[in-house]
Amino acid sequence: MKVAVVGANGQIGRHLIKLLDDNEQFNPYAIVRKEDQARSFKEEGIAASLVDLEASVEEISEGLRGADAVVFTAGSGGATDSDKTLLVDLDGAVKTMEAAKQVDIKRFIIVSALQAHHRENWNESLLPYYAAKHYADKELERSGLTYTIIRPGGLLNENGTGKVSAAENLSRGSIPREDVAKAIYASLTEEHTYNRGFDLISGNKPIEEAIKEI
User: Fold this and answer.
1) Which helix (H) or strand (E) segment is 108 a member of?
2) Distance in angstroms (rounded) separating the CA atoms of residues 115 and 41
3) Which residue, 111, 87, 102, 119, is CA-closest to 182?
4) How confident is the prediction for the chain on average, in pLDDT?
5) Which helix or strand (DSSP H or E) is residue 41 part of?
6) What positions carry a catalytic annotation?
7) pLDDT reading at 77 higher than 70
8) For residue 77, is it left (φ>0), alpha (ψ between -120 and 50) or beta?
């Protein structure tokens, strides 16, 4: 399975690329926005393509062509204003969905945010971010793609434990980025995660077991 990782240069993306590269069942494909990022992946033996999420659907589709699945883990980042959040986290995500359909990709995983599906639980200090995630997730649900929406809690740079709590609704919590990548990896071919979304925080169950019990 050739997996296009949109936002591959991010911390979750890099963890995921390594997991995919270590398994002969998968062929990772790094989708990045800068030439030096693409060059870095290619030097590691990873296929890479330059894609600007603010470009047209047609241009994005050319970057995805040949993939069997898409993981969207891109984001505008905490240092940008709300306009970039709108253009990348929402419009960029939706254009990537449209592009995937144009080149006949069926499987699509998106990294969202804990409780993004319930407005009353949004983080008051991150309202534009949560709004972008909420509506991108809604569009994915309507897209006809075989989707999985993973909504992680507060992201940590600690080493992953491999143990999580996963459910449709969870209270506040945090999780290492490495464990988010492992959950994406486990979800790619786990049919129990098809066409559903779930919150994800650190917990006590091994990741593969947790996502089978959602």
Assistant:
1) strand 107-111
2) 33
3) 111
4) 96
5) helix 35-43
6) 129
7) no
8) left
* Tens-digit pLDDT profile for residues 28-56: 999 999 999 999 999 999 999 999 999 99
Q: Are 136 and 117 in contact (CB under 8 A)?
A: no
E strand spans, 131-195: 146-152, 154-156, 163-167, 174-176
Q: Give the orientation angle of helix 177-187 with respect to helix 11-21, to 10 degrees.
A: 50
Identify the bridge partners of residue 206 per DSSP, sorted by sequence position. Answer: 163
Mean pLDDT of the 174-180 span = 98
Q: How confident is the model at residue 78 (pLDDT cuts 50, 70, 90)?
A: low
Task: Provide the token pair at 170.
Answer: 């969870």
User: How far apart, in Å, are the Cα atoms of 76 and each of 23, 82, 86, 160, 174?
Assistant: 29, 9, 9, 24, 20
Give the phi and the psi of residue 164 in degrees, each rounded to 5. Answer: -140, 175
Q: The pTM is what?
A: 0.96
Residue 4 and residue 29: Cα distance in Å, rounded?
Answer: 5
